[in-house]
Every structure is written in structure tokens, then in C-alpha cells.
Design brief:
Length: 290
């Protein structure tokens, strides 16, 4: 009888241990799932932060940046509800402040389509495509009206085109200032080819095609939105040995780190000054042409 009692007790103990182990395992799995979800949300929020920081300087309308930044706010709010932290609180405050800033478009805001290299052109265009995908998701989730979506996509496509066109035009002007007419015309022709082969349906594109063709034929010195002063360069710029930037490209991690530093309000190198029309102004007061 004693052996039977012992066996029953051991059975209950074993069952109890199994139940406790199962509860602990379920708790740990739930904790791991929660942590994974939080990490995924945080990573996605930081990716969207980086995207905002990269497209905002090349978009005349800050509405697109605000729409995406509002997604960042939503994600940080969700993270804060799951597991509050000082980091998330600061990130949320910064995101809210950015969205408030994006409601306005100050006249001295710096906007330029000129990239420093072919690799940077590709990066800008990649980020503009990514922004388009985010906007499509917002529309599909009924967080963005069809009209707003179409208007934003028109602007994204135009910026995508202008990043390449204006970079080539800018380098054409620089080559011409060096009295290298062959290289200048090669850049102007590249700009014209990009415009002609682009699927963007915009009257501005046809106008630019005509003007660039006139520049190539020597009938025009500059595009109509530029003044004579904006076509001038400083001596330092003219004496630069390269047309396109030859500096090493940043890695994806370096770009993410730099983006996060900017988002946290940390000090960064001063951006080039621009005039009221968004054209870069070089040291000494001369204005850089596109």
C-alpha cells in the first residue's frame, strides 16, 4: 500500500512539474514573441525614419514626408504601449515634432535634385521608389485618399526624373566652365536622352526637352529657370579635378547611422546654402547651376 501511495504521489508530482514547465515555456514563448514583435516594429520605424530623412530634401512638397513620418509616429506609439522606454519616448517626441514641421514649407528650405555621383542618383531613385510603395500601402489601408495618392505619385515620378536630369545638366555646366565642350555636350545629351526615354507624362518634361536640345545646339546657354548668376561657378569649383564626386560611397549601415543621428537632433555638417528657388549657392556667393 505504501508503494502504491508513493507511486500516486510521484505521478501527481510529475504531472504538476509538467504543467509548471508548460506554463513557463508558454510564458517564455510569449515573452520572446513580444520581444520579436517589438524589435520588428522598432526596426521598421527606424527604416521609415531613414527613408523620410533621405527623400525630404529632394521633394518640393513635404506632404509625402509627413505621410510617411506619421507612420513612424504610429509605430513608436505601439512600441511604447507594449514596453515603455526612454529611447522610444524620445524617438516619438522627435517624430511628432518633425510632422509638425512638415506642415509648413518655409521659403528658405533647402531643396536640390543634384546628386554627387551616379551611385547617389541610384540611391535617391531607390528611396523615391520605396516611398511610392509606402504610399500605396497607405492607400490600400484607406489611410490615404486616391486623389492624394495620385498627386503624390506624380511628384515622386517627377523628382525621380529630375534627380538624374539635373545632375547631368549640372555636370554639363561645370564641364563647360572648364572649357571642355565635348564633355559638357556629352552630359547635356545624357540629360536629353533621359528626358526622351522617360515614361513621365508631364508638360514640364516636353519643355525641358526643348530647352536642353537648344543648349546642345548652342542656341541657349542655360535652362529658363536659371539666371546668368546661377550659371557661374567659383574658381575652386572650376578647378575641381572631377565632375562627378569620386568620394567613397557610404555603406547602408553608415547611412542608417547618419540618418538616426539627424533624427535625434545631433550635430551634422552644414548643408549647402540655396537661393529662394532652391539652387545651391557656392562659397563666395556664386550660385551653382544645374
Amino acid at each position: 500500500m505504501g508503494a502504491l501511495t508513493s507511486l500516486i504521489v510521484l505521478s501527481f508530482v510529475s504531472i504538476g512539474a509538467l504543467i509548471i514547465a508548460n506554463i513557463i515555456n508558454r510564458h517564455e514563448r510569449h515573452k520572446a514573441t513580444k520581444k520579436h514583435y517589438q524589435q520588428t516594429m522598432r526596426q521598421r520605424a527606424e527604416e521609415l525614419e531613414e527613408l523620410v530623412s533621405q527623400i525630404e530634401p529632394i521633394l518640393p512638397n513635404r506632404g509625402i514626408a509627413k505621410e510617411i513620418n506619421d507612420m513612424v509616429i504610429d509605430k513608436f506609439k505601439q512600441i511604447q504601449e507594449i514596453e515603455p522606454s526612454e529611447y522610444v519616448e524620445i524617438a516619438l517626441e522627435n517624430a511628432i515634432q518633425r510632422s509638425e514641421e512638415y506642415l509648413t514649407n518655409p521659403p528658405d528650405r533647402r531643396v536640390t535634385f543634384v546628386a554627387g555621383s551616379d551611385a547617389q542618383i541610384a540611391l535617391y531613385q531607390k528611396k523615391l521608389n520605396a516611398a511610392g510603395k509606402v504610399l500605396k500601402r497607405l492607400r490600400d489601408e484607406s489611410k490615404l485618399t486616391e486623389k492624394s495618392y495620385k498627386d503624390y505619385m506624380v511628384e515622386l515620378r517627377w523628382s525621380y526624373l529630375q534627380v538624374e536630369v539635373m545632375t547631368y545638366m549640372h555636370n554639363g555646366y561645370r564641364s563647360r566652365q572648364r572649357e571642355d565642350g565635348l564633355t559638357a555636350n556629352a552630359f547635356f545629351k545624357k540629360a536629353a536622352d533621359v528626358l526622351r526615354t522617360s515614361g513621365v507624362g508631364d508638360d514640364r518634361k516636353n519643355y525641358q526637352i526643348r530647352e536642353v536640345s537648344e543648349i546642345i545646339r548652342g542656341k541657349r546657354k542655360k535652362m529658363s529657370h536659371q539666371t546668368n548668376e546661377e550659371a557661374l561657378l567659383t574658381a575652386d569649383d572650376i578647378n575641381d579635378s572631377s565632375t562627378m564626386s569620386m568620394e567613397p560611397e557610404q555603406t547602408d549601415q553608415q547611412r542608417r547611422d547618419e540618418s538616426r543621428r539627424r533624427m535625434r537632433g545631433e550635430k551634422e555638417p552644414e548643408a549647402p546654402q540655396v537661393d529662394a528657388n532652391g539652387f545651391p549657392v557656392l562659397p563666395g556667393g556664386a550660385k551653382r547651376s544645374y
